[in-house]
Design brief:
Blueprint lengths: L1 H9 L3 E7 L3 H11 L10 E7 L5 H9 L2 H4 L2 E6 L5 H13 L7 E5 L3 E3 L3 H11 L3 E9 L9 E2 L4 H9 L2 H7 L12 E3 L1 E2 L3 E5 H7 L11 H11 L3 E12 L18 H37 L3 H16 L29
Parallel strand pairs: 1-2, 1-4, 2-3, 6-11
Antiparallel strand pairs: 4-10, 5-11, 6-10, 7-9, 8-11
Length: about 350
């Protein structure tokens, strides 16, 4: 039985998509970490996308990926436009969809990652074992090897309140399950980390690709919410272990210096709640987050922290009301032509 299972996994066509934005050295490192996986999955291919980086990324990646060790299995796709994370991934997926033999599974991998031995194969096996599963996500590891949050429950007004208040005690009091799901074994979850997850191509044919009304953040959460609406499941796979150098491109990682969230974070948050719950969800989640921030400010002693909280409340209030665009989906379909500009540019 195990021999047959291994043979099926080895025969699968998998495409790994990595979107670079001004981190070419990390991107090449991520590609290099995939080389060992090709021993287990000989049909594995990779598409490296440069999302309109303002530095010399395109030239550096073209040179590095042109080396003999990458030439026969890595394709480089430079884009002139910085259209955001979801849009850039869509360009690669739409190109793959137009091939004579599109891949069965598409693994989306951040450039600031390094896969460990067997990580990609573990995701393939999970999707093979669960045909109802649309997406399977890896267990992320901090550079020191400790586990990082990788599986989650969907955002809600209650979880916005708890997260903003920075109070697990309040969550227990209100009996609101935590956002982060802690599990020792493979399990169904609401959504998984966007840094490393594999998607079944049939699920994309059924549900559509990333909504390109998002520039960055929340796009993978909305996609997995859509998978659930169409009857698919999402699973967390602890056996797929991937080291994550979080925030290397955005500066918003766990180890980065605290700073205000960019405007597009608030726009993406607002769009997520608008698409998944309508105007009421945007309003209630905003009120909950503001209330949570107010609770947090009472507990804070340092003036710097209080100023940061005040800025966060101001930005939440500014983005409290949804626009018509926030409620209008914009997810391309499998088979659509690539190259159309993202919807967020028309806001």
């Amino acid at each position: 039985m195990n021999t047959r299972r291994n043979a099926e996994a080895l025969a699968v066509e998998v495409a790994v998509v990595i979107v670079n934005y001004a981190t070419p050295e990390l991107t090449v490192q991520a590609v290099a970490s995939l080389s060992g996986e090709r021993k287990r999955l000989p049909k594995l291919k990779a598409v490296v996308v440069d999302g309109g980086s303002p530095d010399q990324s395109a030239a550096l990646l073209r040179k590095a990926l042109g080396k003999p060790e990458y030439r026969d299995w890595v394709t480089f796709l430079p884009l002139a436009l910085n259209g955001g994370f979801g849009w850039a991934n869509n360009q690669a997926i739409l190109a793959l969809a137009r091939q004579d033999r599109p891949p069965e599974f598409i693994h989306l991998l951040n450039p600031d990652t390094k896969v460990t031995t067997g990580a990609v194969l573990a995701l393939v096996r999970e999707l093979k074992a669960h045909p109802e599963c649309a997406a399977a996500g890896s267990q992320l590891l901090h550079p020191d090897g400790t586990p990082a949050a990788s599986a989650f429950r969907f955002p809600s007004a209650g979880r916005e309140l708890i997260a903003a208040a920075q109070s697990e005690k309040l969550g227990r009091l209100l009996r609101i399950p935590a956002t982060v799901v802690k599990s020792a074994g493979g399990t169904e979850v609401d959504w998984v980390t966007g840094a490393s997850f594999m998607i079944r191509a049939d699920a994309l044919r059924n549900s559509g690709l990333f909504d390109d009304g998002f520039f960055l953040y929340f796009e993978e959460v909305e996609l997995m919410h859509r998978f659930h609406r169409h009857g698919w499941t999402v699973r967390h796979v602890p056996e797929s272990r991937v080291v994550h150098f979080e925030g290397a491109a955005t500066g918003l990682g766990a180890g980065s210096e605290p700073r205000p969230y960019p405007a597009y974070w608030y726009l993406s948050r607002r769009r997520y709640f608008g698409l998944t719950g309508g105007r009421a969800a945007v309003l209630w989640s905003g009120l909950a987050a503001v209330a949570g921030q107010a609770i947090a400010s009472v507990k804070q002693v340092a003036d710097r922290n209080r100023r940061s909280t005040a800025v966060r409340i101001r930005d939440l209030v500014r983005n409290a009301l949804p626009t018509a665009a926030d409620l209008r989906p914009s997810a391309p379909k499998w088979g659509d032509a690539p190259g159309n500009p993202p919807a967020w540019m028309n806001r």
